[in-house]
Design a protein that fits this description.
Elements (H helix, E strand, L loop, with lengths): L15 E17 L5 H10 L3 H10 L1 H7 L26 E10 L5 E14 L2 H8 L3 H14 L4 H12 L8 H38 L11 E15 H4 L7
Antiparallel strand pairs: 1-3, 1-4, 2-3
Helix pairs in contact: 1-7, 5-6, 5-7
């Protein structure tokens, strides 16, 4: 069969378009690079793909997770959340890299240590949310950006800012806009519960267990988590495989 043969299967050529402005939360977890940690990192991170496993862990360790959040000052309602399939997918992958660091130790003596970094992005799926709430993608993006910029997850604060910036004088949020804002607040709490209540708490628990069994000679004094709330993800999407994209409006 030659390239010019009419019977040759016609394959649509890729047609790429820029889909800009998906808001979300960009997170990184930092801990010392240890050979002994690699299997528990892989296990905990990949188990996170299965929503039922995460739900089971949170249910079986609800009291311990509550104690884990005590100093964090989480709202009591956070611990009563159930990771609902309606908020799935929110975690679909991770990447890891390593950096060489130098830190001030006892008496300011420098300590060299390799740090392992786990990177995760929690992206709002603006296409599906547009269909779910019957709102233009532009409105989804505007409300989400104000929400993440305030970092308070307080619905009333975000509502006030959005009305001041995007509504005529005296005009409030529509019913659909208000429903999306409340969804977004719960989505934020779901991410918090997943990252701290499931992932980081499970890592701490496994490290403590390794120490108890004598597999490691000390536990980590600190594990760091950074959150960048101003993530703006621009995707270049092939329309022939993803379907027609809705224009920005």
């Amino acid at each position: 069969m030659t390239p010019d043969d009419p019977a040759r299967v016609q394959i649509a050529e890729p047609s790429y378009r820029v889909l800009s402005g998906d808001p979300g939360i960009f997170l990184e977890v930092y801990l010392p690079k240890r050979t002994q940690y690699q299997h528990i990192l892989y296990e905990s991170l990949t188990e996170g793909f299965r929503l039922d496993s995460v739900r089971t862990y949170l249910s079986e360790h609800k009291q311990e997770v509550g104690q884990f959040f005590e100093v964090y000052g989480a709202r009591p309602s956070l611990l009563d959340l159930h990771l609902d399939a309606d908020f799935d997918p929110m975690y679909r992958g991770y990447s890891m890299y390593e950096v060489d660091g130098v830190f001030a130790g006892v008496n300011q003596a420098p300590i060299e240590e390799r740090t392992q970094v786990i990177r995760m992005m929690f992206r709002l799926d603006t296409e599906s949310l547009t269909e779910k709430f019957h709102l233009p993608r532009r409105v989804i993006q505007q409300i989400a950006r104000i929400f993440f910029r305030n970092q308070s997850s307080r619905v009333n604060v975000v509502r006030w800012h959005y009305e001041m910036q995007h509504k005529a004088s005296g005009e409030g949020l529509s019913e659909a806009e208000d429903r999306f804002l409340r969804y977004l607040s719960t989505w934020h709490d779901q991410v918090t519960l997943f990252v701290f209540g499931y992932l980081v708490r499970r890592l701490c628990d496994r490290i403590r267990g390794m120490y108890t069994k004598g597999e490691i000679d000390h536990v980590e004094q600190e594990i760091w988590v950074t959150a960048f709330w101003n993530m703006n993800l621009n995707r270049v999407v092939d329309q022939t495989s993803a379907g027609a994209l809705e224009p920005y409006r």
